[in-house]
């Protein structure tokens, strides 16, 4: 940044300057904040828009004062604290009480703040009963909350259901219609395994929300013996704790990594969207597909009795390549009967390993007038060209399409997996593939499932697909599919992707412009999409390419930008397990937060102020090393490590002869901090 750049930016009007600063990333904000006092004052409110994980045990008085000043600017609040016995073993009861009082101060600061939209605890946070009760009282004061991620509850000597701890993960989405027309608020509660389920129920009931979407997640992808065939009493406790009824009457239900018994807790009459992902096997008795077929037959019967045959979304996804596992599937006749009985289907996603005799067009044509999103995978082989031609002729209104096409990679230097596929062969196959799709004039999103980059060693999947998608997009526009905007390349198997640490999906944005206005000629190019928007992620999930199997995947997709990295959480957990380490502060020569106050000016670099003057003098005739400069971590922050205190902070306000001013205390005096 040149010396004249800060003055030019500061000369802008306040509204325009705030708009420019609001578009900066968090790292850019922190860097700009340290330039001068003017930028410090301008950037500081934007830093506190998203208060990233605050470590409750490390909160300082200065940071609490700053939170009090900027509380009306805060939109997201993320906390971290762990009261597990292993952590508390290294701390005395005084430190435990101080942490509780600090947490109480934070909650007092943000009580009844209507601008606060997101409240979350990190996934490693664990609160005991005392901390959890204070957290629940704070949640009750938030009437306009949109996202809530619950911490785990530490309870001993009681059963799982009796104390209200969730045995599985769940996402509860609710809506509330306000008195003003065309205004509707939404709430998403992430109930983690081990958290208190009644918090979600009390929050939705208190503010009049109506639960519309339920997602239940099993323990893992391959093994879940939590519920057997007769465990409906436990499902009653779970549904009651989550604030939903059994049978589940919500219109949107998704089941992840659960066995077929969970299907029978759903009320088919009010169901509009059903998602079944990665059904696992039972460990009690031999597997029988009758449990799934009996549910679908019951769904058909109840829909007919209720006179409501609408099923707008049906997603049935099983892992295609699961070695050593018996395939969980529904039969061809059962699927045909189900699709024939329901109507107005808009989204159809069907992935399973067994191959059907009938082509995909025979199933899709049953909803040709309403079908917009269609994804079909039966087996590991490529879809046949004849089936694609039949699909494009039968369902011309499809907007998003997902198919298996293993030829999505242009060979680089050596043949792929011993095959003799050359660039000329790839272009010939791409032309045949695209020409079969030319009947889909409204196609905007194409999702291709492939195993191509399993053999890539020398280059990354993104580099390998770049040339392939460049040619594929050009061939699509040449065939008349001028509406294509996005191409997703997804690995065919969740198992292989997790074991080899592949990227879940590689997405490309297609750009095209006409070469000649008199002719239909386009010049196309593709670029990698680093961060998909929320609507694109939801569409990719509907196509079966999202690879979100556990709740933490959905949580990371929605609010993952607020959480610290995995390595940072590992370091924090390791530090908590080992207990406090005062030798680190001694090595850094830091005693308190006042030792790291910044005194920098725009173009002057000064040595940081030390707590004690150094007695080490350089030897005569030898130049001393320049001082080390850079952001210093403030105790109490994880992602706000580079945030520095105002170089000229305002003088603290005091009561007459009393301590610094903090938020008003509760009526009972709980949580007051002693000085």
TrEMBL record:
Positions with biased composition (Pro residues): 647-667
Record field: compositional bias (Polar residues): 591-602
PROSITE patterns, A to Z: FBOX
Region listing for Disordered, in residue ranges: 591-675
Cross-referenced SUPFAM superfamilies: F-box domain
Domain F-box per the UniProt entry, residue ranges: 6-41
Protein name: F-box domain-containing protein
Species for this entry: Massarina eburnea CBS 473.64
